[in-house]
């Protein structure tokens, strides 16, 4: 492996760690495209998955028991259903159209909040059925396109929890999602010992990233935190939209 690839992986891991540790992984979508500059997207995704699993444990430790159990009980089972559907339908899905769809949803949700100057406290919680739909969509898109953040944030941003509960809850949800994803990824042959050892080599970078993210988290006001989340959601949407169009 050349130095450029190692550098790109390190940057992707550090950026994702900061995002996970401080901002519920809202900017982690850049990791796979960044690494894919020197390898196939499938290989890049396989490398990132074990690293994400490690980061999740660091993030949970940092925000231990600060999550909302009620949200967890809604989100995780629905997300697992979404992962299962993604695994069963992986062979015939159009990744391009999926990225475009999720990109448009993310951009629309963020712009609606910004243009109408809607405060998060004014957003009404989703109905139980709608909440489970977005969580299932988050699990589904996380499996097929590593883009579970936007749909999941559509749900989480309407729960009304404070910023620390938001990050802790998102961390526990995505820990479950990423560890469940190991099963279908392994069955599809995308994980092997070489990939796992390579991922483990970047554990120190992942740890530093999460610590930096948590440090930033406690130094950003709640209002600014959610403005950052909305902004990153919009940027993520643009990135997904761009990637989807580029596949045609």
Automatic annotation (TrEMBL):
<dbReference type="InterPro" id="IPR052017">
    <property type="entry name" value="TSUP"/>
</dbReference>
<feature type="transmembrane region" description="Helical">
    <location>
        <begin position="29"/>
        <end position="59"/>
    </location>
</feature>
<feature type="transmembrane region" description="Helical">
    <location>
        <begin position="165"/>
        <end position="183"/>
    </location>
</feature>
<feature type="transmembrane region" description="Helical">
    <location>
        <begin position="224"/>
        <end position="242"/>
    </location>
</feature>
<comment type="similarity">
    <text>Belongs to the 4-toluene sulfonate uptake permease (TSUP) (TC 2.A.102) family.</text>
</comment>
<dbReference type="InterPro" id="IPR002781">
    <property type="entry name" value="TM_pro_TauE-like"/>
</dbReference>
<feature type="transmembrane region" description="Helical">
    <location>
        <begin position="71"/>
        <end position="90"/>
    </location>
</feature>
<dbReference type="GO" id="GO:0005886">
    <property type="term" value="C:plasma membrane"/>
</dbReference>
<feature type="transmembrane region" description="Helical">
    <location>
        <begin position="126"/>
        <end position="145"/>
    </location>
</feature>
<keyword id="KW-0472">Membrane</keyword>
<feature type="transmembrane region" description="Helical">
    <location>
        <begin position="195"/>
        <end position="218"/>
    </location>
</feature>
<feature type="transmembrane region" description="Helical">
    <location>
        <begin position="96"/>
        <end position="114"/>
    </location>
</feature>
<keyword id="KW-1003">Cell membrane</keyword>
<dbReference type="Pfam" id="PF01925">
    <property type="entry name" value="TauE"/>
</dbReference>
<keyword id="KW-1133">Transmembrane helix</keyword>
<keyword id="KW-0813">Transport</keyword>
<protein>
    <recommendedName>
        <fullName>Probable membrane transporter protein</fullName>
    </recommendedName>
</protein>
<keyword id="KW-0812">Transmembrane</keyword>
